[in-house]
């Protein structure tokens, strides 16, 4: 297990846009009292705007768990919740990760691998200032980055649990400004590896990826003359597979790709990307 954090960034940036007020998910275990915050806690903040990869409902978490078993490269996911701090440390502001993060009215719970801590380095006055502010905890994470089966998926009437591998954590105010941030080494490694391989790749549900792989050779033929990267988003409308968004291709190549997927039996939504060989 890599240690948490290689650097921390304290900033006051416009790193997100304000969205409508709503209650943030709790960060505590069922039936437990919140841990001490070491000071009076301010009112619940407005949830900060989330980046791509946001897990905003139980269905999105179930879909992410399903994709985790087939993704060649771990996807980055994001949730926002109300932080629970432990008692003040000599240096830094620590989020309590000893109990699960509860989401979606208790329908899902997340826990960090090996109870990996989240600590924002800060002087005692700065830590006390952050502790008293109305802030959201925004957590970036991977599923199964360090291997293993990350999720126990259950219906809405039970509790879905997921083991998360931390990527980064931020404290964000109601305007979306990042007040403190801590990155992990695994996030740095993931970011450095963000160089797509030439050829055809797929994103979507396990069903979409499994079916679309059968059309890989045909798709490569469709994009043989492409000089730039190709991005196609497919949707199913009235039982028919259609192109909802396309970039980097003309109508002929787009229709060729649609026919290739249709012939392979694709009947679910997903994304096809193509990167030509340099």
N-to-C series of helices and strands: EHEEEEEHEEEEHEHHEEHE
Low-confidence stretches: 1-24, 27-51
> Biggest β-sheet: count, sense, barrel?
8 strands, mixed
Helix share, percent? 10-25%
Instruction: Output the radius of gyration.
Output: 21 Å
Shape label: elongated
Mean pLDDT: 77
The amount of beta strand, in percent, is 25-35%
How far from one another are the termini? 35 Å
Number of helices: 6
The total of beta strands comes to: 14
Structural class: alpha+beta
Could you characterize the architecture of this molecule?
The protein is an alpha+beta fold. It contains 6 helices and 14 strands. It has helices at about 60-70, 125-130, 185-190, 205-210, 215-220, 250-265; strands at about 5-10, 75-80, 95, 100-105, 110, 120, 135-145, 150, 160-170, 180-185, 200-205, 230-235, 240-245, 270-275. The strands form 3 sheets. Strands 1, 2, 4, 5, 7, 8, 9 and 10 form an 8-stranded mixed beta sheet that branches. The protein has a 4-stranded antiparallel beta sheet with strand order 11-14-12-13, covered by helices on one side. The longest helix is centred in the C-terminal third of the chain and has 13 residues, at about 250-265. The radius of gyration is 21 Å and the shape is elongated. The two termini are about 35 Å apart.
List the keywords.
disordered N terminus; alpha+beta; 278 residues; eight-stranded mixed sheet; four-stranded antiparallel sheet
Short overview:
The chain is α+β, with helices and mostly antiparallel strands and 278 residues long. The protein has six helices and 14 strands.
